[in-house]
Amino acid sequence: MIIAGLDVGTTKVTTVIGELAPDGVLDIIGEGTVPSQGLRRGVVVNLERTTEAIRQSLFQAERVAGVKVERVVVGVGGPHLKSVTSHGLAAIRRGHTIAEADVERAIEQAKAYPFEGELELLHALPLEFKVDGQEGIRDPVGMAGVRLEVDVHLIAAGRGPLANLRRAVEEAGLALDAVCVQALASGLAVLTPEEEEMTVLLLDIGGGTTDVAVFRGGRLAHSAVVPLGGDHVTHDIAQLLKIPFEEAERVKRKYGAALPELADPELVLEINQEGGALGEVPAPELARIIRPRMREILHLARQSVDETLGPLEIQVNRVVLTGGGALLRGTDLLARQQYGLPVRVGKPQGVSGLTDVVASPAHAAAVGLVRYRASLPLKPLEAKRIREKPEDKPKGEGLWARIKEFLSNLF
């Protein structure tokens, strides 16, 4: 099964192609990354440029993989995302055990949450169930009880931004296989089995925004978007040093640090100022420009958790940083100082193939999109396409043999 994940971000567009083997192993077989100029804070502002960037990224990934991609899983981000944890309830007839239909009724009631504005529901993620007051149940099917309750994390996206993203994908010649919020995708890519048993705060620091996610027992319990990212750090450097944005980005990537004490006190950087003049700036001074904005990003992320779940230090066991902004030297140390918790930089794991190509925090969302689609049931059309391979044809000749073979691929 070939799966393509498309991460359309503020600063870059990345396509990752994976192949899901019958034994469940996910091989990364293609990758393509190009600059993005058609988005602002994760939202499409120039349809033509976004479409062209998607085409170029896809072309690069297809060339590496040697396959033609027709469908993609697309990541959704930006301040237009809204999330809430909603409560659902279903009554169970006496003498009956809880069935899948009862679980679906409880979740459907939770999905009826009245979001304000023009929003489209993307995810309804069950957190935990309660049966007759007993809490902490992950799967209630088959249990006895008369009252089933569930907490569901709902994530919705603005209809306008979502429609523009879909249109850009379609105009690039692709069909939309599924959509997934970037925070969820990043968590699927970088969390370790040990962390899936903890409560983890994941921060995906992108160019225009920072995605905030709290995973509790491997399930997404809180999500938010901070409207600040790595580009805001670059703008601060450009403004205070009076240099072009491109030069500020180069200096940040090559010499930047989130903490002045990590910078070489003897190093003086030559910078290209506007008008072609050369200037100088000590490396610690550059870090002193960077630190306030990084502190602000971390503070706003913490604030979103404090207001929704309670004090960060009490609720969270560990912090994982990912996204391109996590590559800034010292960001993990600054987060450790600010949060008082263990912090690590997360990279995609649990995949094979081109692991060296995607072994970066900047590829977390794209790899996670592939993993997200791999976790979904096969659609009938996809199951049929896989079965059409000569080596996979049913061995039985009768109708019943073909039906059984088809159902085995669905379930």
TrEMBL record:
Protein name per UniProt: Cell division protein FtsA
Protein species of origin: Thermus thermophilus (strain ATCC 27634 / DSM 579 / HB8)
Membrane topology reported for the UniProt record: Peripheral membrane protein
UniProt cross-references to SMART domains, sorted A to Z: FtsA
Keywords for this protein: Cell cycle, Cell division, Cell inner membrane, Cell membrane, Membrane
GO cellular component, one term: cytoplasmic side of plasma membrane
GO biological process: FtsZ-dependent cytokinesis
Function text: Cell division protein that is involved in the assembly of the Z ring. May serve as a membrane anchor for the Z ring.
Alphabetized SUPFAM superfamilies for the sequence: Actin-like ATPase domain
CDD domains: ASKHA_NBD_FtsA
HAMAP family noted in UniProt: FtsA (MF_02033)
Homology family: Belongs to the FtsA/MreB family.
Compartment(s): Cell inner membrane
InterPro entries named among the record's database cross-references: ATPase_NBD, Cell_div_FtsA, FtsA/MreB, SHS2_FtsA
